Amino acid sequence: MATQATLTEATRFFNEHFPEGSAYDSRYSQVSTIRSGSNGQDVNLRFQRLGNQLQFLASLHDKLPSSSSIKESVKTAILATFTSIEELKNSAGQSLLLSNANLGGSPAGGIVLAGLVITRTGVYHDLDQTNRNRIAFATDSLANQIASWMDSSSNPSYNALEDSIGCWRNQRFANFAVNGPILHVGGLGLYLDLIATYSSASQFPKYQTLYKYGTYVMDKWATLDASQTKASLAIGGLLTINSGRKFFPSSGYNAYVGMGLAWLAHGMMYTGNLGIIPDARLICDAKKINNFYQDVFHAQSNMKAYEISEPADFTGEKLKEDTILAVVELGYSRTEIDQLLTSHLDSSTGYLYTLAWNGDAAFLTALDKAVRTAGETVFLDSEATDGSSIIIAYSRTGEAAAHRAMAGFAGMLQRGILTVSDGI
Questions:
Q1: How far apart are the C-alpha atoms of 368 and 388, rounded to whole Å?
Q2: pLDDT digits (tens, 9 = 90+) for 204-251
Q3: Which domain of life is it from (predicted)?
């Protein structure tokens, strides 16, 4: 297995994927069209993608040598991304950044807040006062919105925290989609650790609500193996929307939950530094998701982790027809399940790179091999001569992959994971 420096590969990623880079190729991540909105994505998905960009850019800026000529280009890209976020409006014409009326199920708000926090603790100090003020105001505004939302009577996920938990074929599931709320409170956890002025985590007035969101992931909604060291989460969700989704684990969903847990650990135990991984239960819980997917890799010759997989069997196999029929027999609509499957037929092993935030370097090495074996890569010229790491080769497969890779690189850079591999 050949390894390369994470910072070197993150710099390569910047040069390939961002128009400010020296080897920009617009085929890969569509960074420019996401900023402009010309790719037709809905406004909340653009908001989410721009949050991934902020996380990556701010992390790369902070880790580059001070004499690096690339650092100024990264700063330019950060300001372009921030400007694009400022311009996004919801259906009511409100700024998503400064008056986010769509907090909740969408992961976007928490991902953006995490990006703003990282920006404010690093590159912020290299900006002029006007841009410092803009970023500080945006960060505080979004953090305050999430703090108000998290235990609001109008927040369906908060109301569902104490609801009875469903179970089917040994697969537990929440009565709401967990990934969005966990990322929101996770982003707030980073804010509380790195920016807020509370003397300890327990001084935050809503500490107990934060604690509930975090610990309930494993205590109420996860399906664990007998050893209690491996865990997966079914997608969950409302009864009236794609009802069949409740029963099925998803690689992207689980990866985002794990990322949110790793962020939220900072809101439980202050560290003051993203390079310090909290010695906290929530980090261990996030790693249980890693352990589940290591089982998935070993159980299948193609090592694929599917976006919709079989429930609670700890092999993560592609969804089979007899499982679909069993769900239909419970009274769910075949049309709903077919609609769900339409966008979730392929493997999404590389989505798991967002789990880099829990600092498990051994898992990332296993993931490189799995992504390569699953065929989720695009190499330039040839595998033999390009010299790309697997996360780079994966990031070239499309904008969704590229933005997961951005979150993965941000986690690796911040957690001090020094090398990436070629997956062999």
A1: 12
A2: 999 999 999 999 999 999 999 999 999 999 988 765 555 678 889 999
A3: Bacteria
